[in-house]
Each structure stands twice: as structure tokens, then as C-alpha cells.
Design goal:
By secondary structure, the protein is an alpha+beta fold. It is 29% helix and 21% strand. It has a 4-stranded mixed beta sheet with strand order 1-4-2-3. A hairpin with a 5-residue loop joins β2 and β3. It starts with a helix and ends with a strand. The model has no long low-confidence stretch (mean pLDDT 86).
């Protein structure tokens, strides 16, 4: 191989793009299915006002509306919750659903729902739990 061809081969190798990043929605480091449900004293409910917010995010184009299943459109949001001392919430991590505003909204709702509402007998400090919320969107 001539010096020119060796130089071209080296430059071509440097210009090769790196492999594509994996889809982050599919490679979450959290094993969502392994997390226990957050032990609320009183189970919170999704209100019509909360559904309207999520519906508004879809209508404004900030999120892609889900495909209907059995004639209903549902947005499902999971939030991982780290319990701190005194059955307080230390951290929340929403699961990526390709809609950051709804992800953060769900995390905020969970924080509010948990305030003074965790069963102190079952909420173990330093343990991660899961909260699943479903927003049933009107047609």
C-alpha cells in the first residue's frame, strides 16, 4: 500500500460516524416492573382537571397523542419514588414517555399526593417505589 493510500484509509476510519445511540426509551436503567407500589394511606385519584392538562399538552402538539386502544386514548405515566426519613419523598424520576411536560407533571402530582399520605408502617426509608397513573383522554 502506498503512503497516500495508507493516509486515505486512516482518514476514512476517522470520519466514520460513531454507532447510533440506543433508544433511551427502551434502555432505562430502572427495572420498573420490580418496583413495589408506593404505599399510600389513601389512594389518590386522577381528576378531570388533571386529564384536561394532559389533553391540552396533546392538543398543543407538545406530545403525540396515543393511538386508541379499544376505542379509548390513554396516557400512562410511571414515576419512581425514593422514600426518605419520616415517610417523606426524597426524589421522583418519571419514566420517559416522549412527552416531557406530562412526565414532569406526573412527578409533581406524585410528590403532592405523597405529602402526609404514606403509610409509615410500609414505606421504608431508602427504598424506591413506583406510582402508575393513567389519564383517560376524552374522544
Amino acid at each position: 500500500m502506498t503512503p497516500f493510500l495508507a493516509l486515505m484509509a486512516a482518514l476514512t476510519a476517522q470520519l466514520t460516524p460513531p454507532p447510533a445511540e440506543p433508544n433511551r426509551l427502551r434502555t432505562s436503567p430502572i427495572d420498573w416492573e420490580a418496583l413495589d407500589a408506593l404505599p399510600y394511606r389513601t389512594q389518590p385519584e386522577v381528576t378531570p382537571q388533571m386529564v384536561r392538562f394532559v389533553q391540552g399538552e396533546m392538543a398543543q402538539g407538545r406530545c403525540t397523542p396515543p393511538a386508541p386502544i379499544a376505542g379509548k386514548r390513554r396516557v400512562h405515566a410511571d414515576v419512581a419514588v425514593l422514600v426518605g426519613s419520616g415517610a417523606s419523598v426524597r426524589a421522583t424520576i418519571p419514566r420517559a414517555i416522549n412527552c416531557p411536560t406530562v412526565e414532569q407533571y406526573a412527578a409533581g402530582l406524585v410528590l403532592g399526593f405523597a405529602r402526609d399520605n404514606l403509610n409509615t408502617r410500609f414505606a421504608v426509608e431508602g427504598t424506591w417505589y413506583r406510582v402508575s397513573m393513567t389519564f383517560d383522554l376524552p374522544e
